[in-house]
Amino acid sequence: MTTAADVGDFAKRHGLTVAVAESLTGGNLAAALAAAPDSAQWFRGGVVAYSVTVKQSVLGVPDVPVVSETAALAMAEGVRALTDADIAAATTGVGGPGDQDGEPAGSVWCAVATRDTSWAVHRNFDGEPEQVLEQSVRCALEMLGESEKRFTG
To answer: Which residues form the CinA C-terminal domain (predicted)?
Structure first.
């Protein structure tokens, strides 16, 4: 399991900066990264874009369902460009307890964008809203950790 400290170690080893865009995680991913050792050296910050309007106007999300691959990728790419970070992660989804826009509770998209490429994964998490949120933060941290392979070949 990748931790925020692992992400920090990877960023420091490669001289990279990291940013985040969050919806359902409400700042928890940024808080985890900010609490990691030496985060001031590599963590640029983040945007909590809980409303559709903020996702669109600040992060450049097009007029699509916000719980989608397109939205997650746009969020990651938008915050990466906004902060001039080398790598950015994004989370968007349905924490629950009910459905949203036809998506069931626990439906989550996590995305990562670098200066060269971006990718996203979809997960269906079980549990109460706070459990979905925790699993979503872990998903984003895992994706950031896996992205090291893209920098090291």
So the answer is: 3-146
Instruction: Give domain 4-152's CATH number out of 3.55.40.10, 3.90.950.20, 3.30.70.20, 3.40.50.2020.
Output: 3.90.950.20
- ω into 97 cis (within 30 of 0): yes
- List pLDDT tens digits, range 37-91: 999 999 999 999 999 999 999 999 999 999 999 999 999 999 999 999 999 999 9
**Token pair for 79:** 């915050």
pTM of the model: 0.96
